[in-house]
Amino acid sequence: MSITKRFWVSLIFSLPMLAGMIGMLFGWTLPGGAWTQLILTTIVMLVSARPFWQSAWASFTKHHANMDTLVAIGTATAYIYSLYAMVTGQAVFFESAAFVTTFVLLGQVFEERMRNNSANAVEKLVNLQAKNAEVKRGDTFVKVPLDEVQKGDIVRVKPGQKVPVDGVITQGSSSVDESMVTGESLPVEKHVDDAVIGATVNETGTFLVKTSQVGQGTMLSQIVELVKKAQNSHAPIQKLTDKVSNIFVPAVLMLAIATFLVWNVFLGASFAESLIFAVSVVVIACPCALGLATPTALMVGTGRGAKMGILIKNGEVLEAVNDVDTVIFDKTGTLTAGKPKVTDVVGNQTQVVQIAASLEGASEHPLATAILDRAKHDQVTLSDPTDFRAIEGQGVTATVAGHTAFVGNEKLGANAQLSPALKQSLTQLQDEAKTVVLVGLDKTVIGLIAIQDAPKPTSKEAIADLKARGLKTIMLTGDNSRVANAVAKQVGIDTVIADVLPGQKADQVKQAQQNGRVAFVGDGINDAPALTTADVGIAMGSGTDIAIDSGGIVLVKNDLRDVDRALALSKKTFNRIKLNLFWAFVYNVLGIPVAAGVFFTLGFTLSPELAGLAMAFSSLSVVTSSVLLNRAKISAPRTQVA
Amino acid sequence: MTKLLVLIIGLLLIGFIAWWFFGHHATKTVEAAQTTGQQSIDIDVNGGYSPEQVVLKQGVPAVLNFTRQDASSCLDRVVFSDFGINQALPQNQTQAIKIDTSKPGEYQWACGMDMFHGKLIIK
């Protein structure tokens, strides 16, 4: 019989006795007196409470005790004593046994529902997966089940369909809603050569994808695997409760007997009174709230993180985040976009970009890519240069539409005329640690293009959020200090450590650890040693390449603001665990002396049924508080103040 | 006189509980039965796990068959935290759980509330 059914049986047969108890205040008694109580309680015991006894006995034979042991002993004691009391004509308390059963089952019904609730994050993730795919077979597209798709297959995705596999677009373009996997709320534009993630939803156009990952290798599968492990991991704080739960139940039983002995033998209370105190102790002490406190919060917290594109690996990470006081960032690819970009164009915008791009069209210099990207973005039509000449270490010259043009550094422009206004701009841009190229036409410099590996648009906000949290921020980079300082100033980072060789990053992290707990944020591929050295390694993912192994926290989307969100979520979850443990301990540890009658002289006691109610509430409140983590606000302290 | 008797009985009970639950009692260890290319163990879930300690051979695909007879919601899930497994155990239905035996070592499993434990040894 299910717990829910057992609860209803127990409730229905307890209600008349409850009515009798209330009625007593108004001079009304239950018809049939003790006999009615006996019949009602016997039904409750046989139908609803019997499984407790069976489980308790099975445990007992294995030298174990569990919460059912407590419930079974509590209810059996009350029931059997009442039988004896009835025979000998003394006051009975059948209703205690029935009420305790009802309340305990009530707690379990809710708890079961809540636990299923908190565990379904993984299920939701798995269900995101598309069921089938339209795969190119020969010249036509055939619909096949997903597990028949193989690496290298071309898959067609129509608007409104789920992208079935991880892959790269070979034809077509569209905007794709990736929120379910990365947490990114805005649709992402996708063109040829862009990577798409399985289980995301195609919104506007039809495109073809070349499959790069299927089955266990897909990003979604990896995320599911990670979340599963995280949800069932142990937090170090739990070790205490692990130890406690093993000895708790037998200890409580001994305490209950001691309570009885003290009342009956030393304080001269009657047999029945002493027994009630002992039964209350047994009933209130159930440690299940203690056992539920950590796993439920961990489950909800990590599940919620997964929805936001923040993967927290386990309970240990969660606990470590709490003590972090310094966050170290890798510069390239983390704070900055990782590829040079044109930041400023001085002079006639179109003309300058057009000439520069036309000349650089044939060049393979990384700066050339930045200029060509800008030309593409501005939709500038390029002209065909002739007499193309590359001058080593200086730049390029060529003839464009009959004029001699050049693009290069100051050395190349030394012979050309440079107006004072442009000269001033040049110095200013260089002071901002940007690389500046001069664009000239017929021996006159007509404009400047400044290029920089620019900070991501969100970096500044992200750093401000972390600082508002009271964290120290440090930037590590292999660049020279001038470039590094300029970037640091733009994003607002406190300390810069420049000229760091890739191999030294871990050492720098170690050094910072002497002053406190350190989190390191890096891209996960090059920074693996630093990520593992740090107390908390935060790996930023990009595209389908999530660096699961190196980071304690993995950020699926390439947004630095998630660092703050991840810290906030971890702290919230850990605080919730602590709060849960606190309440569980309060219920159990404070409840026991009250139930034992320590405060009897103050008129403060707990009857067995109240103890049962308190116990039901303790597990219920712990699970509810964990589930409420789903609703807790995860936002930066900075925005809260504003 | 009755009081003395009650006291003695009570103290004896306390002593019995201490001995029964905290004393050293041998736990049953079972080695997996090997069939061609596979190993499996049946585990009964009733007031705990029997056997409580199982030994698996490294590198051979393994299946643990859990059958819950106990009505207690305490035992309605089995969790292998090292393997990321959290399996619901419907009452009186056998649930097969596949174990990755590639890495030797000792692993704990527990019920959903972390009250009952079992140990898995891969060697």
TrEMBL record, chain A:
The chain crosses the membrane at residues 7-28, 34-53, 65-85, 91-110, 247-269, 275-300, 581-604, 610-629. It catalyses: Cu(+)(in) + ATP + H2O = Cu(+)(out) + ADP + phosphate + H(+). Gene3D superfamilies: Calcium-transporting ATPase, cytoplasmic domain N (3.40.1110.10), Calcium-transporting ATPase, cytoplasmic transduction domain A (2.70.150.10), HAD superfamily/HAD-like (3.40.50.1000). NCBIfam families: ATPase-IB1_Cu, ATPase-IB_hvy, ATPase_P-type. GO terms for molecular function: ATP binding; ATP hydrolysis activity; copper ion binding; P-type divalent copper transporter activity; P-type monovalent copper transporter activity. It is found in: Cell membrane. This is P-type Cu(+) transporter. GO terms for cellular component: plasma membrane. Its EC number is 7.2.2.8. InterPro entries: ATPase_P-typ_cyto_dom_N (IPR023299), ATPase_P-typ_P_site (IPR018303), ATPase_P-typ_TM_dom_sf (IPR023298), ATPase_P-typ_transduc_dom_A_sf (IPR008250), ATPase_P-type_domA (IPR059000), HAD-like_sf (IPR036412), HAD_sf (IPR023214), P-typ_ATPase_IB (IPR027256). GO terms for biological process: copper ion homeostasis. Residues 128-228 form the P-type ATPase A domain. Belongs to the cation transport ATPase (P-type) (TC 3.A.3) family. Type IB subfamily. It comes from the Bacteria. It holds the Pfam family E1-E2_ATPase. The keyword Chaperone does not apply. It is a multi-pass membrane protein. Keywords: ATP-binding, Cell membrane, Copper, Copper transport, Ion transport, Membrane, Metal-binding, Nucleotide-binding, Translocase, Transmembrane, Transmembrane helix, Transport. It comes from Levilactobacillus suantsaii. Its main location: membrane.
Automatic annotation (TrEMBL), chain B:
Residues 14-122 form the EfeO-type cupredoxin-like domain. This is Cupredoxin domain-containing protein. InterPro entries: Cupredoxin, EfeO_Cupredoxin. The lineage of its organism: Bacteria, Bacillati, Bacillota, Bacilli, Lactobacillales. Pfam families: Cupredoxin_1 (PF13473). It comes from the Bacteria.
